[in-house]
From TrEMBL, chain A:
Protein name per the record: Mediator of RNA polymerase II transcription subunit 20
Role of this protein: Component of the Mediator complex, a coactivator involved in the regulated transcription of nearly all RNA polymerase II-dependent genes. Mediator functions as a bridge to convey information from gene-specific regulatory proteins to the basal RNA polymerase II transcription machinery. Mediator is recruited to promoters by direct interactions with regulatory proteins and serves as a scaffold for the assembly of a functional preinitiation complex with RNA polymerase II and the general transcription factors.
Family assignment from sequence similarity: Belongs to the Mediator complex subunit 20 family.
Example GO biological process: regulation of transcription by RNA polymerase II
InterPro entries associated with the record: Mediator_Med20
Keywords annotated in UniProt: Activator, Nucleus, Transcription, Transcription regulation
Localization per record: Nucleus
Main localization category: nucleus
TrEMBL record, chain B:
Lineage of source species: Eukaryota, Viridiplantae, Streptophyta, Embryophyta, Tracheophyta
Coiled-coil intervals, chain numbering: none
Major location category of this protein: nucleus
Organism this protein belongs to: Nelumbo nucifera (Sacred lotus)
Subcellular location: Nucleus
UniProt KW keywords: Activator, Nucleus, Transcription, Transcription regulation
Gene (name only): LOC104609067
A GO CC term assigned to this protein in UniProt: core mediator complex
Name of protein: Mediator of RNA polymerase II transcription subunit 18
Length: 216, 250
């Protein structure tokens, strides 16, 4: 499948993300002739272990994330970041986890917004909001390059595109910038050929960054 | 979330109706994933005759089965209650495929006692090949593992029915599927299952019960854990099948 980079908005120190920035970013896409196509939404859920003895918490993963992706409606992904595990399963795995009652879903976040077509690129600009609130927690952007599935072969063109994008955004003098962190996919057992498992891992990494930003 | 079901028998002018009431204790999908199942045992020497009978009844080719089943249980500290999940690895595929299977509670109540088919909740999910490592990391432990070797027939007869005939084998060393030995030498397990939902399991129960009657000359089928043993006249029935070449009424 086509590869994608997931960028996230890194606010400048002392500032927070807000809907004005989201609006400006969307305008940037349209200013470079991105054609608005429709909405998209992915969901990320934090799972925590249910333990009889809380003092043994350290023995269990505290960073279990579940992700459903727009482009894979029948699949669900679990990521255990500290163990570098990404599991792809049918969406019924959520029902199994509910029945097991060993891990409970806590907070869920939506990544949602509009998608745009721009030549061979498909862009998705999205806000990050808790499922029962409109509090903006972050801004993300998916940059998908449709012709290529190889991470290595696409690297140059993706870097060139992101450079142009960063320059376009910087002209608006917004208090922050987009960042791209490339996970070490090999540590997760993933190859150069891009898959939705790669996307799930990128979302987990971005989530960690968003949490770190809020803490700082 | 607990599935609370009971069966009621209701007398009418034209006969007896079987009503199935499902109590939902919390938010649940309306069409709950369920399974109807009966099991039986057959001597290995009669499996060939059973295969001939099934071939005639089902009209589809058999599918070979080689399933490595790992039963995982939650560690002592995990979850308010203990939980169990099964991982099934299909070794017959060119690239082994994994399925996660959760078997839930069976229907309860006086009515459920009266029907000869077990109806239980079951949820399955395909998963990537690192699923065992995933559950170990979550805190699940291997309770036991089995290798099921045999064949299956899948066909439509009032319901989507699957008949599996397998020898159940245990591994002498951890995950050593090449060195498995039968748990009960000379005896194989027959399972008849069909998926069902809270809307249609009366029909599915009826379809399975009806189909099982065709197998009666060779084996008794009953709810799991309610063993009826082998059929005393199975040898004669098997001989008849083998001499007829199958496809004929016993």
């Amino acid at each position: 499948m086509p590869l994608k980079w997931l960028l996230h908005w890194q606010p400048n120190a002392g500032t927070t993300v807000n809907s004005q920035i989201l609006s400006e970013v969307s305008q940037c896409v349209e200013s470079i002739n991105g054609a608005k196509e429709g909405r998209w939404k992915s969901t990320l859920t934090f799972y925590r272990p249910v333990l009889r003895d809380q003092t043994l918490q350290a023995e269990y993963p505290r960073d279990c994330l579940g992700i459903s992706l727009q482009e894979q409606p029948n699949k669900y992904y679990f990521i255990l970041r500290s163990q570098r595990i990404v599991l792809e399963a049918d969406s019924t795995i959520q029902m199994i986890m509910e029945k097991l009652q060993s891990y409970k879903s806590r907070v869920s976040l939506y990544f949602e917004g509009f998608q745009y077509q721009l030549g061979d690129f498909q862009l998705r600009v999205g806000k990050v909001v808790p499922t029962h609130s409109e509090n903006l927690r972050g801004i993300v952007m998916e940059v998908e390059y449709l012709p290529i599935s190889s991470l290595d072969k696409s690297r140059q063109i993706m870097e060139d595109f992101v450079d142009i994008w960063q320059e376009t955004v910087s002209k608006r003098s917004l208090p922050g910038h987009f960042m791209h962190i490339e996970p070490n996919f090999a540590e997760y057992g993933l190859s150069d050929h891009y898959t939705s498992q790669h996307t799930a891992v990128q979302y987990a990494i971005v989530m960690a960054q968003l949490i770190a930003s809020v803490r700082n | 979330m607990v599935l609370d079901c009971c069966l009621h028998m209701k007398g009418t002018n034209t006969g007896t109706e079987l009503l199935i009431c499902v109590g939902l204790l919390r938010d649940e999908p309306k069409l709950r994933a369920m399974e109807c199942v009966v099991q039986g045992i057959i001597e290995t020497q009669h499996v060939e005759a059973l295969e001939i009978l099934l071939q005639g009844l089902c009209g589809v080719p058999k599918e070979r089965l080689r399933i490595h089943e790992l039963c995982l249980k939650s560690g002592p500290n995990l979850g308010a209650v203990a939980s169990e999940v099964r991982l099934l690895c299909d070794l017959e595929q060119p690239e082994p495929t994994w399925t996660v299977r959760h078997v839930g509670g069976a229907m309860r109540g006086a009515g459920a006692e009266q029907i000869s088919v077990l109806v239980r909740t079951v949820v399955e999910s395909k998963a990537s090949k690192n699923v065992l490592r995933f559950f170990y990391t979550l805190g699940y432990k291997l309770d036991h593992e089995l290798l099921r070797v045999g064949f299956a027939f899948h066909f439509q007869r009032g319901a989507q029915i699957t008949v599996t005939v397998t020898s159940v084998n245990k591994m002498l060393k951890l995950h050593a599927t090449e060195e498995a030995v039968p748990v009960t030498p000379g005896i194989q397990l027959v399972e008849v299952t069909a998926p069902a939902s809270s809307d249609n399991y009366t029909e599915v129960v009826a379809a399975i019960s009806s189909f099982c009657e065709y197998l009666a000359p060779l084996l008794h089928l009953s709810k799991p854990n309610v063993s009826a043993g082998v059929v005393p006249t199975a040898a004669a029935a098997a001989a008849s099948l083998m001499s007829n070449g199958g496809g004929k009424t016993l």
